[in-house]
């Protein structure tokens, strides 16, 4: 049984920076056969191997890269417990990205018998004698790095740097982390997403030249998503992509129509995504309804499975919650900011069986809610780091056969990130930042823009008004392959249910087999169906007729643009002025047909 070091202060009055650590009664005496008591019954294979590597090399700095959901917290706390037991260290400092994660670390450490103060701040300079360690944020370290350095120097300190890529969020943060923890006895760095979108070096991380001569981060141990999936440590993820017809008005007054999922310019893609995610539009309502249907199917096998909607800003989060309440018949839990009350809401949701939680950014990284199984990516943030962190909330496996489902717009960027789930990346130094969606593009600016809300977005993209949207099911993306049906698949159709109805408990190989079977079954059914007899008037359901006409009109407008150079929005506005009626997204079939006929007439006159 490990006790406090003999040379630790024995007074009951705290000194300027700390007091004696409390007795530790639950450290593991059986390393490495099991994890520290209070976490799990035994270590996973990767954890045991990584811990073995750690103590074999006995390093001052160690970087462990492990996919979200793999168990980095248990790994780190097991090392911390062993170091305390061997009296190599006598204090612990955990540095986390957010206030909520500080509390989460303190709770996990308490189960191991390591009391950590999550309310510590450098300004007060001391903490209770009941604590062996403290938990702070990277921002907190940056406010007073000197105080943290003095504390680190006074004791044999292990510093656990959780999601260490945040130490590169700003050059000042990296400098503060280096100043504060340079005297540490040991430093253990953890991350699930090691790549960053800038070229700021991450403190205490080793870099080695790659094949192209550019320095790349060198992890001491790496455990990727693909490996974790094969070990059944994480769930397989099915991405449900939804496209659809969208229309908006630009600040110049032009009306623009586009189809989500088709190649678009950078500006049009940004406007299309915002239009799809507009809470007042039908696209997001349709996707939320599909996600709720999927959650119902998953809960047949996993009764406490929960869902999470990740929104761009607080107004959208509230609006999505209102829509979900009508769909699910149950008010979702809303998490709007990184405050203590929000942490309590997350904890309550994690321990309960409520269906949905709606949040902005704070639930995107590190937050541990293992029962999350269905997600809706309803944010305008389209960066690889944020996407990986968000998807990481759904992959933690509790039992064999659990799957994760993430619903997202059929955006080229997002689908690209989804198809690269198993790709491991390193932090690269010296690479040029550009603005064209490069994987290392300036991510922080995009995150700040999304967090600032609609005002910042409008300033960047130009003031615009979402006029209408309609969602269609595109396909399911799994293990880099697409599964779906030919033609336009409407929300709520049997074709969509072919995939929404897939059981929530399946092994990874069963997932692929069933997806292939559903796709093949529908194809064979369509091939066996008798050729339809064309009636005098096509018997088409109203919404299908409207979709066909919108596509025809948009195609003609695009051809007119190619022929004359006239912007799409100008052509739509001219047709509305000439023929009357509302925007194409809400126009009737007759109004759409009139505009189609008018544009064909214009094309004929120009040719003659």
Mind explaining what this structure looks like?
Keywords: ATP-binding, Helicase, Hydrolase, Nucleotide-binding. Residues 1-13 have a biased composition (Basic and acidic residues). InterPro entries: Helicase/UvrB_N, Helicase_ATP-bd, Helicase_Restrict-Modif_Enz, P-loop_NTPase. One of its GO terms (cellular component) is cytosol. It holds the Pfam family ResIII. This protein is of the alpha/beta class and 608 residues long. The chain folds into three domains: 45-230, P-loop containing nucleotide triphosphate hydrolases (Rossmann fold), CATH 3.40.50; 235-427 and 448-483, P-loop containing nucleotide triphosphate hydrolases (Rossmann fold, 3-Layer(aba) Sandwich); 541-606, no CATH class. It is built from 20 helices and 19 strands. It has helices spanning 45-57, 72-85, 99-112, 138-143, 145-154, 171-181, 225-230, 266-276, 282-301, 314-328, 340-351, 384-391, 412-419, 443-452, 454-461, 494-500, 508-528, 542-564, 568-579, 589-607, and strands at 61-66, 91-96, 116-117, 133-137, 157-161, 186-191, 207-209, 215-217, 221-223, 237-249, 255-260, 306-311, 333-335, 356-359, 372-378, 404-409, 465-478, 481-483, 489-490. Strands 10, 11, 12, 13, 14, 15, 16, 17, 18 and 19 form a ten-stranded mixed sheet that branches. Helix 1 packs parallel to helix 2 and helix 18 (542-564) packs parallel to helix 20 (589-607). It starts with 44 loop residues before the first helix and ends with a helix.
């Amino acid at each position: 049984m490990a006790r406090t070091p003999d040379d630790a202060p024995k007074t009951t009055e705290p000194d300027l920076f700390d007091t004696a650590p409390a007795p530790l009664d639950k450290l593991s005496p059986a390393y490495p056969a099991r994890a520290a008591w209070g976490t799990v019954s035994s270590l996973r294979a990767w954890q045991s191997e990584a811990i073995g590597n750690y103590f074999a090399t006995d390093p001052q700095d160690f970087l462990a890269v492990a996919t979200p959901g793999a168990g980095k917290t248990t790994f780190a706390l097991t090392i911390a417990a062993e170091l305390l037991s061997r009296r190599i260290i006598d204090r612990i400092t955990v540095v986390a990205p957010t206030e909520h994660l500080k509390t989460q670390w303190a709770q996990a450490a308490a189960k191991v018998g390591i009391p950590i103060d999550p309310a510590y701040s450098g300004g007060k300079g001391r903490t209770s004698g009941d604590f062996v360690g403290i938990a702070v944020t990277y921002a907190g370290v940056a406010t007073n790095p000197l105080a943290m350095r003095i504390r680190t120097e006074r004791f044999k300190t292990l510093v656990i740097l959780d999601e260490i890529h945040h130490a590169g969020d700003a050059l000042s943060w990296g400098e503060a982390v280096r100043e504060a923890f340079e005297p540490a006895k040991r430093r253990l760095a953890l991350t699930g997403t090691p790549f960053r979108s800038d070229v700021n070096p991450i403190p205490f991380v080793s870099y080695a030249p790659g094949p192209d001569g550019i320095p790349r981060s060198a992890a001491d141990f790496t455990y990727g998503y693909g490996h974790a999936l094969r070990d059944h440590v994480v769930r397989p993820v099915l991405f449900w992509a939804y496209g659809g017809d969208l229309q908006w008005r630009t600040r110049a007054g032009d009306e623009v129509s586009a189809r989500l999922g088709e190649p678009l310019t950078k500006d049009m893609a940004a406007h299309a995504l915002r239009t799809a995610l507009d809470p007042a539009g039908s696209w997001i309502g349709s996707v939320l309804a599909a996600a709720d249907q999927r959650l119902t199917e998953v809960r047949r096998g996993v009764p406490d499975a929960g869902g999470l909607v990740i929104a761009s800003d607080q107004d959208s989060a509230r609006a999505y919650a209102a829509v979900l309440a009508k769909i699910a018949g149950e008010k979702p839990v809303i998490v709007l900011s990184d405050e203590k009350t929000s942490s309590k809401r997350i904890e309550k949701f994690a321990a309960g069986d409520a269906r949905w939680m709606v949040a902005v950014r704070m639930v995107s990284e590190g937050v541990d809610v293992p029962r999350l199984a269905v997600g809706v990516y309803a944010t305008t943030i389209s960066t690889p780091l944020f996407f990986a962190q968000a998807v990481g909330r759904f992959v933690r496996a509790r039992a064999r056969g659990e799957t994760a489902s993430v619903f997202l717009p059929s955006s080229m960027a997002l689908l690209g990130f989804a198809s690269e789930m198993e790709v491991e990346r390193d932090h690269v130094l010296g690479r040029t930042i550009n603005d064209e969606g490069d994987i290392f593009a300036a991510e922080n600016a995009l995150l700040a823009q999304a967090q600032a809300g609609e005002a910042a977005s409008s300033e960047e993209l130009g003031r615009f008004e979402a006029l209408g949207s309609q969602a269609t099911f595109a396909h399911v993306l799994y293990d880099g392959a697409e599964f779906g049906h030919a033609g336009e698949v409407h929300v709520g159709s049997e074709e969509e249910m072919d995939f929404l109805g897939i059981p929530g408990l399946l092994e990874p190989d069963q997932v692929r087999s069933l997806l292939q079977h559903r796709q093949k079954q529908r194809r064979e059914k369509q091939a066996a169906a008798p050729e339809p007899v064309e009636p005098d008037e096509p018997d088409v359901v109203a919404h299908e007729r409207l979709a066909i006409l919108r596509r025809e009109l948009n195609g003609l407008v695009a051809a007119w643009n190619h022929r004359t150079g006239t912007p799409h929005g100008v052509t739509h506005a001219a047709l509305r002025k000439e023929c009357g009626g509302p925007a194409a997204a809400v126009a009737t079939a007759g109004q759409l047909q009139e505009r189609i006929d008018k544009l064909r007439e214009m094309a004929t006159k120009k040719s003659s």
